[in-house]
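Quick log. Single chain, no ligands specified.
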Amino acid sequence: MTLPDFDWEALRMLVGQFDQLIGRPAVDEEVEARLAMNLRRVLTLLYATGVTMPTADAIYDAAGGDGSLLADIEPTIPDAVTDPSASEVRDVELALRVAASAEALQSLAEDLDREELAGQAARDARAVAASLAEGTRLWDAGRREAGAWEWAFQFDEWGANALEALTSLHGLLWGAGE
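-> predicted structure:
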């Protein structure tokens, strides 16, 4: 099987960068001050890459279109389903980090708006990560075609969440929440 022509390794690298940004604990003030800007940059690149990647149908057809590509995929259950409280804690932690980062860069928005925007950005960023996780798991397990298909198939969901997170980050960084 061969994948349609596309830089799949670049997509995998972006997914890894994104996971590192939202998954790492707070490090120091200098790194945290750049979190919102870096998150916006990586989400923008992820979305732009998603828009240009081949469709799930094209990947399925390139794999022979006989169902073997998806036959033995065992979907993982996201943490948010098995332990909603753990997901909520991670969302709150990320929201606080994003808000602090934006505060260091821009202080025009009112506190309530800033908190709402940071919370929305964190929830949407986590949703992007959850939507990309299955494709990443398959890709890293050597099932490149299945992983690529999963990323493309889920783009409708993770692309929309990426745009929502970008909108919230834009409001945080440039005062749209005033």
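Confidence is low (pLDDT under 50) at residues 104-112.
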